[in-house]
Design goal:
Elements: H1 2-16, H2 20-29, H3 31-51, E1 56-62, H4 71-80, H5 89-94, H6 100-105, H7 107-115, E2 118-122, E3 125-129, H8 131-135, H9 140-150, E4 151-155, E5 162-168, H10 171-192, H11 196-228, H12 238-275, E6 281-283, H13 296-354
Antiparallel strand pairs: 1-5, 1-6, 2-3, 4-5
Length: 355
């Protein structure tokens, strides 16, 4: 009994396995439904795509920076920007610009880009706003996420070129944001990032300030001594002469230290300028004249193809369900016929036995 059921189920499964030619025949038999459904899907897709505003992408690119930085500069950069993560010194020595994408993606620069006021001209009127107003939110986290979505930062490992692409609903705004990213990176390199020479310059600057105060105090002490002892150079008192010599030597020592620090400060300032990477802009972002999206024609064609696919699946499923329901009705009819014939067969067998 079980084997018969398995055999019947296999037969039913084989009955519903359609070949490609059968699928094409079924779909073509309902071509009107398939065509209307696909056309309706394409029209709905086109209407939705037309409601989506145009988007414009502006791109700015910078050239790789020469490798004239010291290791101390890289360490100080990681200390200032903890969100850059721990990056190997070999990468930094290979190309300082390898860190530019991470700096551009950082929250530090992102907040500056969000606070910047941008001006665009529409219908002869100039509109000024920041990106908080553009994204319609006062939440810094939501604004930063929205900025991250419209910004694409790419680093070419072969050439070392870094590109910043910004996509918004306005061509002027896209170009302004992309260019301001590069401006923020340049400002960061000049004023925020510290190299080995920069740290040395700051140390010397502090020592110069302390030495200058000490020199002024020593000069004031010598001046007060001479005012109190106007005839000290004629005096024969050894203690008085020793005190004058001590104060005079202190002024001379502090003066020499200050002069030495001044020379070292100038050298450190020059070295710091040499170590700072210079941002060389290859392409300045300009307002694009062609939209980057949405691709209305491609999306409409895709909607048409999806409509054909969905309607074909519906037609095939409906056909299979019709065949299955017919098979069930036939089986029920056979069972009824069996129950009708069974009493007649019993009567015939009983009459044969009596005869």
């Amino acid at each position: 009994m079980t084997s018969n059921r398995l055999y019947e189920s296999k037969q039913e499964m084989g009955r519903f396995n359609l070949s490609f030619s059968e699928v094409v025949r079924i779909v073509l038999s309902r071509w009107k439904f398939v065509s209307l459904f696909a056309l309706g899907t394409a029209i709905c897709t086109a209407i939705i795509v037309l409601l989506i505003p145009n988007k414009y992408t502006a791109t700015s690119t910078i050239l790789p920076t020469s490798t004239d930085l010291t290791k101390k500069g890289a360490f100080s950069l990681n200390e200032m920007m903890p969100d850059l993560g721990s990056m190997g010194m070999s990468f930094w020595e290979k190309s300082p610009s390898i860190l530019y994408p991470e700096i551009l993606k950082s929250r530090f620069l992102g907040e500056d880009v969000l606070r910047k006021n941008y001006s665009i001209t529409k219908k002869g009127k100039t509109i000024t706003f920041d990106l908080y107003e553009y994204f319609k939110t006062d939440n810094p986290d939501l604004a930063y996420k929205s900025l991250h979505k419209i910004t694409a930062i790419d680093y070419n490992k072969k050439t070392g070129i870094v590109s910043v692409s910004v996509t918004t609903r306005d061509a002027q705004l896209s170009a302004q944001i992309a260019n301001y990213y590069i401006q923020c990176l340049d400002e960061f390199n000049k004023h925020k990032r510290k190299t080995g020479a920069g740290l040395n310059r700051e140390f010397i600057e502090k020592r110069m300030a302390d030495t200058e105060k000490q020199l002024e105090q020593a000069e004031e002490n010598l001046k007060s001594f001479r005012e109190k002892n106007l005839n000290y150079f004629r005096s024969t008192d050894p203690e008085l002469l020793m005190e004058h010599d001590r104060l005079f030597r202190e002024v001379e020592v502090k003066t020499k230290v200050y002069l030495t620090l001044s020379q070292q400060y100038e050298l450190a300032a020059i070295q710091e300028k040499k170590e700072l990477p210079v941002i060389q802009v290859l392409d300045v972002a300009k307002p694009p004249t062609l939209k980057s999206g949405p691709a209305r024609a491609k999306t409409t064609i895709l909607g048409l193809l999806m409509g054909i696919l969905i309607s074909s699946i519906m037609v095939i499923a409906q056909q299979q369900q019709f065949i299955k329901s017919n098979d069930i009705d036939i089986k029920r009819l056979i069972r009824k016929l069996r129950f009708v014939r069974l009493p007649q067969t019993i009567k015939k067998t009983e009459s044969i036995k009596k005869g």
